[in-house]
Amino acid sequence: MNTVVKRLKDFGAFWYDFVVGDDWRVAVVVLLALLATFGLSKTSVAAWWLMPAAVAVILPVSLWSARKR
Amino acid sequence: MTGTGGALFAAVFLACAVEAVEAVTIVLAAGTARDWKSAGYGVGAGLAVLAVITAVLGPAVTAIPLGALRLVVGGLLLIFGLQWLRKAVLRASGHKDLHDEDAIFARELAAAKSAQAQTRFSVPDWYAFTLSFKGVLLEGLEVVFIVLTFGANAHDVPLAALAAAIAVVLVVAVGLAIRAPLAKVPENTMKFVVGVMLTSFGMFWGAEGADAHWPGDDAALLVIAPCVAVYALVWVSVLWRSAPRAAEPSPASELMGA
């Protein structure tokens, strides 16, 4: 049983690492930006700028927290 | 080939070349330190599993409606791209060690030499088999993901597959010819470019999948990619100033592979 649980955990950890990677905040911001873009696209306001804006914010935040001090 | 087709080809070619360099380094270490025959079996088994995954995922991915595909794949590509870009910027600015195939090869070689030989399922050296199997499978998974997602989104899986095949064949041929890690490949620069491409395509497709419309349609990509590259270079420059080191090459020279 322990072996099965360990293998499932390893499998989950592999896919988490493969998809989410080192900084989970990047994945969360991308997800929120997609949702916000979808919401905004249903109004009369242009929605294309939301994704670049999200990247412009999350990239430096992620870089800043990963820098060597 | 259109401008978008050229960008698609370049992005897939560079991404797959980088993954192939990493896989070749691992297989070379397994073959050199242990047993070429077992390492070869590992490569064959890895490719067979990848072929099954491609055969299952390929039709499934191309059957998904384009809007949903662009939303999901755009989001995933953007997350992937930002990971690549983050590492590339940290490396170029001196906040992370440069990717060094020579060092990785030496490390894999030392680990391979210290492991005990064991015969299993008619494979002379199980360690060499599993090492190259894992290397091919893990790096190959990224190749499959990139080819299928880029190809399906751009309605041009054959072009994406061609770019990947040329990259992999080229890297494997050079690796087999010199039988040494491909340390001369400007891997860090390539990773930076791939990060820019994945982030750009991810933003573009993700927003389109979420029903947004880019000004200029497909031509917007030709503005997005240079903007992402310049923005990342600005952060290389900013972070380079605070990097904890003495006299080092400038970020520009590091990205040029100097």
Automatic annotation (TrEMBL), chain A:
Keywords: Membrane, Transmembrane, Transmembrane helix. The chain crosses the membrane at residues 24-40, 46-66. The lineage of its organism: Bacteria, Bacillati, Actinomycetota, Actinomycetes, Catenulisporales. It comes from Actinospica acidithermotolerans. It comes from the Bacteria. This is Uncharacterized protein.
TrEMBL record, chain B:
It comes from the Bacteria. It comes from Actinospica acidithermotolerans. The keyword Signal does not apply. Keywords: Membrane, Transmembrane, Transmembrane helix. The chain crosses the membrane at residues 6-29, 41-61, 67-85, 126-151, 157-178, 190-207, 219-240. This is GDT1 family protein.
